[in-house]
Design a protein that fits this description.
Blueprint (H helix, E strand, L loop, with lengths): L10 H10 L2 H6 L2 E6 L2 E7 L13 H17 L6 E12 L7 E10 L4 E11 L5 E15 L9
Antiparallel strand pairs: 1-2, 2-4, 3-6, 4-5, 5-6
Amino acid sequence: MPSLTAQDPNFEARCRDSFNRQPAMHLIGATISRLEPGFCEVELIRRPEVTQQHGFVHGGMVGMIADSAAGYAAYSLFPADATVLTVEYKLNLLAPANADRLLARSQVSKFGRTLTICSMDVVAVQADGRELACATGLATLMCLLGRPDAPPQK
């Protein structure tokens, strides 16, 4: 993949600030562990609150971190006066998310003025450091120019 260039030199602070304003990510305990222009990795530590009845991390949580990783991979390339919105994503669950730590990694595949396409992969990091692929997919993100990436004022 060719290297991508951020339009905003402050992309990292802007992305992290936006991510940190997401109550959903706080709720499940997800964090951005790596961020580069066109790439984002989101980490989720397994806790009982994010598991399903068999003790695996719930597929909905896998989808949440994959979606956020894709959103911030795309958002990292957007101009400073834009925000991001997911248009759609498709996720294939490959194996149970059975590890104490999950990593959702997303890379921009096609950057466009309005729509950006990202690949997404989620791995379960085993105790010995091996990574087991548990999900893969594609996301389409929309660049909303001239819209602040902040909650509306009440």
